[in-house]
Design a protein that fits this description.
Blueprint (H helix, E strand, L loop, with lengths): L11 E7 L8 E7 L17 H14 L2 E7 L1 H7 L1 H15 L6 E5 L11 E4 L7 H24 L5 H4 L5 H10 L21
Parallel strand pairs: 1-4, 4-5
Antiparallel strand pairs: 1-2, 2-3
Helix pairs in contact: 1-4, 2-3
């Protein structure tokens, strides 16, 4: 069972993103505040769940959460500021949209930029440790998948309905044959510049 909270008695928002390693599409992020006493059976890091289970859990999360929000940063923003900073921007946008103000923020991963004056905790593999982060990972993943399925209707040759924009062999071959689209990240490479925070 995942932990229901890091600090008892504080309204905690769990944050996570989806789509950092993709060649196309936005990066999505979610922020979720859950009741302290809530337990959601089967909730885990979205990468450990099948598609049907993720969508079932999304319905439960949205009905049970005290507050939740999903936001994104588009490929142009990713190209401008790098994927790490765009991921954090999307998390901040999701936090902006919450109907409740959290007392602290739990973030999956090891890097984040302060959000106003609210304390935050970066937790490596947090989506497999805390319910609120796992819930955020499920929402970010399913909303992004929905977005990529919609884009697949516009550009079916890239197989986004199946690969969701990740760098599969099929996707790379389609880029070689057809070139890129406005939905592709023109600057994306797995390099140091993509993981750098501004000084």
């Amino acid at each position: 069972m995942l932990e229901p909270y890091l600090t008892e008695g504080i309204l905690e928002a769990g944050c996570d993103e989806a789509g950092r390693g993709c060649l196309a599409g936005p990066v999505f992020a979610a922020a979720v505040i859950l009741p302290e006493t809530l337990q959601i059976s089967g909730l885990n890091d979205s990468k450990q769940l099948g598609e049907a289970k993720r969508y079932l859990l999304r319905t439960i999360i949205e009905k049970s959460a005290l507050a939740y929000a999903v936001a994104s940063a588009d490929p142009a923003e990713i190209d401008e500021m790098n994927i790490l900073n765009a991921s954090i921007l999307a998390m901040h946008r999701a936090l902006d949209m919450l109907s409740e103000i959290p007392g602290q923020i739990l973030v999956d991963g090891n890097r984040f930029r302060p959000y106003h004056d609210i304390p935050h905790h970066c937790i490596i593999r947090g989506d497999g440790k805390y319910l609120s982060i796992a819930a955020a990972s499920v929402l970010a993943k399913t909303y992004r998948d929905d977005h990529m399925k919609a884009l697949d209707q516009l550009c079916p040759q890239y197989g986004w309905k199946k690969n969701k924009g990740y760098p599969t062999r099929e996707h790379r071959e389609a880029i070689r044959i057809y070139g890129t689209t406005p939905y592709h990240r023109k600057s994306f490479r797995l390099r140091e510049e993509q993981l750098r925070l501004p000084m």
